[in-house]
Amino acid sequence: MKGTEEQVQSALAWLKRNGTRKNREGMARYAIPSDKAFGVSVSSIQKLAKQLGRNHELALALWETGWYEARMLTAYVDEPARVTPAQMDRWAGAFDNWALPDTLCFALWDRTPHAWAKVTQWSAKRGEFVKRAAFAMLWSLAVHDKRAGNTQFMEGLDLIERAAADERNFVKKAVNMALRAVGKRNAALNKAAIAVARRLAESTDPAPRWVGKDALRELTSPSVTRRLAKRVDPADLRSSNK
Length: 242
Hints:
Elements: H1 4-18, H2 21-27, H3 42-52, H4 56-64, H5 68-77, H6 85-92, H7 99-107, H8 115-123, H9 128-144, H10 150-163, H11 169-183, H12 187-201, H13 206-219, H14 222-230, H15 234-240
C-alpha cells in the first residue's frame, strides 16, 4: 500500500497528465487564477477522487501542495467526520478564488458538524472568499441538510440581510444564491425570504437592491409556488410522528 507522500506525488502526476493548456487558459474567464494549476476539469478531478477514496491524511497533504486541482480534490477525498474547525479556518484563509469555497462547502464541509457554526463565524469576516464561503455553506445546507429546522434558516436570513450591502461580486452572488435556496426550502421559509428580498429590493444602494430584485423573480415565480405547495416540510413530518 502506498504511503501518503507517494499517493500525493502519484495524484499530482495524474493531474499533470490530464491537464490541458486550453483548460488553463479558460480559467481566466471564470476569474480563477491559473498560475499554479494543471488545467484539469472538475469531472476528471472527481474521477481521480473515486480511485483514491476517502482519506483524511491524504487530503491534508494534497492541500499543502498548493496546486489548485489538488486542493479541489480534497473536497472529494477528505473525511467529513475528521475535518476540524481549525482546519476549515486555515483552508478558508488561503482561498484566492470562488471555486474552492463553493466546492468544499457543497462536497465536504456541509457534512461536518461544524457547518452551521462556520456560517455565522465567516459571515462576519472581511475576506471576500471567506465571506463567500459563509453564504455558499448556507446555500448548500438549504439544499442538503434535511434535518435542520426553520429556526436555523431564519437566522441565516438575518445574516443574508446584513451581508447584502457587500458590493464585492463574489460575496454578492453567494448572498443572492443563499437567499434563493433558503426561500425554496419550504412555504414558511419562502414567505420569510420574500419579505427579506422585498426589503432589500427597496434599498437605495445597488448591491442589496440587486440581491433582492433578482431573488424575488425566482421566489415569487409560479414554478416555485407550485412546487412548494406540493412539498411536505421534513420538520413538520417529524413533529407529526412524535
